[in-house]
Write a structure and sequence with these properties.
The protein is an alpha/beta fold. The termini are far apart. The radius of gyration is 22 Å and the shape is globular. It folds into four domains: about 120 residues, Rossmann fold; about 120 residues, Transcription Regulator spoIIAA, CATH 3.30.750.210; about 120 residues, Transcription Regulator spoIIAA (2-Layer Sandwich), CATH 3.30.750; about 55 residues, Nucleic acid-binding proteins (OB fold (Dihydrolipoamide Acetyltransferase, E2P), Beta Barrel). The mean pLDDT is about 95. It binds 5'-deoxyadenosine and iron/sulfur cluster.
Length: about 450
């Protein structure tokens, strides 16, 4: 067997895609290695979402190329969003043998066989129907407890800042029967949590002409597999998250009470420019609905600082929305112009870098305080935790998530990964709940 080493960048979808790639490479006689020095194939599964993501990958291409120069027969492959975006530009460096976009992974064995000196291979065709539904991913998680399952690919939104619709193509939903089968399969192998993944899970829609399944129905079907199987999902879109989905969450104990609901900005004027198709008020109403049906729901978000034409008032609107909602956690970014997007074509990237960073820092500071408040509010509560394994910081303790997605650590010598335990929260930081087992 040859050995393949893959580094994964970007979102959870990419983590799952890497698992699909390992499965396909297995058919071509490659097994997975985590050691770069023993690999015959060096790959990076890449992300284009912000310029700094791509810059890091250019650094890795250099490192891979050096490894290729010192050992005979080593191949270098770039796959994923950056492969899709840059295409020939990657081959033109002479440092890459293989370029494959997100819908070309089935052809990897064929492409690898066709590589010869001076004949690198590329496939960056996007598809309307590829979902890799029949491919069983090779799980690369370390805990054996929590698995990601891709339920759809691509994105039909055209948020003006976002490169994803261009790198991942149009939206398509995977056959629900294959999703349920995959979830049953991981459950039977000891997994106790599945996260259903899509760029916009609320627009999941599958039909074969006689049967039609939307996201709420998919959630019900996966939740019905076993009360011992927790169900999570990401990412929701504020314009699409429906009452039916929120109600379905509320009705099922084993659907985790956490929603990742990217807001991007608190200013309706900017949301409009971003083409998010909702207003500040709409977003706040969705949050109010979630909290009325699921009072303890964990809520996290994504925020962009310094989008085109953002004024100090727009920025204050973002801060005030964050203050008002009180997210448990947020992913916070400075706006990075991506070539080819609507924003790059239509609006000047006119907030100076120092000002973008100043605003980003204000956002980060505020969120730090809010996170601490949200975590502190849990002190004294009893929570059920799914054990993931020893805590990274302190191997004498176990760690795992509560339903609301907050990470919990607690001293415990009895339980193991995959067990459910009841804990009481004693203390916290802004990202961890410090707990004890309940008597
Ligand atoms: N610049 C900065 N952040 C971006 N995101 C998407 N595109 C950009 C960009 N051009 C952020 C959004 C999205 C998250 C995955 O990445 O907040 O929700
Ligand atoms: Fe980008 Fe919008 Fe699609 Fe999210 S929903 S990936 S922000 S286009």
């Amino acid at each position: 067997m040859k050995k393949a080493y893959i580094e994964t960048y970007g979102c959870q979808m990419n983590v799952n895609d890497t698992e699909v790639i390992f499965s396909i490479l297995g058919r071509a006689g490659y097994e997975r290695t985590e050691k770069m020095e023993e690999a015959d194939l060096l790959m990076a599964n890449t992300c284009s979402i912000r310029d700094n993501a791509e810059q890091r990958i250019w650094g890795r291409i250099e490192a891979f190329n050096q490894a290729r120069a010192t050992r005979e027969g080593v191949l270098v492959g770039i796959v994923g969003c950056m492969a899709e975006r840059l295409k020939n530009q990657l081959l033109d460096t002479g440092k890459v043998d293989l370029v494959a976009g997100p819908d070309a992974y089935r052809r990897l064995p064929e492409l690898l066989r066709a590589i010869h000196p001076g004949a690198p291979q590329m496939d960056v065709l996007l598809s309307r129907d590829e979902t890799y539904a029949d491919i069983t991913p090779v799980r690369t998680d370390r805990n054996g407890v929590s698995a990601f399952i891709s339920i759809m690919r691509g994105c039909n939104n055209v948020c003006s800042y976002c490169v994803v619709p261009y790198t991942r193509g149009v939206e398509r939903s995977r056959d629900p029967h294959s999703i349920v089968r995959e979830a049953c399969d991981v459950f039977s192998r000891g997994y106790r949590e599945v996260t259903l993944l899509g760029q916009n899970v609320d627009s999941y829609h599958w039909t074969d002409g006689t049967e039609t399944v939307g996201f709420a129905e998919l959630l019900r079907r996966v939740a019905a597999i076993s009360p011992l199987l927790r169900v999570r999902f990401a990412t929701s879109h504020p314009k699409d998250i429906s009452d039916e989905v929120i109600e379905t969450m509320a009705e099922h104990e084993n659907i985790c009470k956490h929603i990742h609901l990217p807001v991007q900005s608190g200013s309706t004027r900017l949301l409009e420019k971003m083409r998010r198709k909702y207003t500040r008020e709409w977003y706040l109403e969705r949050v109010a609905k979630i909290r009325s049906l699921i009072p303890d729901c964990g809520l996290t978000t994504d925020v962009i600082a310094g989008f085109c034409s953002e004024t100090p008032q727009d920025h204050r609107d973002t801060l005030s929305l964050m203050d008002q909602v009180g997210f448990d956690w947020a992913f916070m970014f400075a706006y990075s112009e991506r070539p080819g997007t609507l924003a790059a074509k239509q609006y000047p990237d006119d907030v100076p870098p120092e000002e973008k960073n100043r605003r980003l820092n204000e956002i980060i500071q505020l969120q730090g305080r809010k996170s601490l408040e949200r975590y502190r509010a849990q002190i004294g509560r009893r929570l059920q935790v799914l054990v993931e394994g020893p805590s990274k910081r302190n191997p004498a303790q176990l760690c795992g998530r509560a339903s609301n997605s907050m990470m919990c650590v607690f001293p415990d010598t009895v339980h193991r990964a995959g067990d459910y335990v009841d804990v009481v929260v004693k203390d916290c930081t802004s990202a961890t709940l410090i707990c004890e087992l309940t008597a």
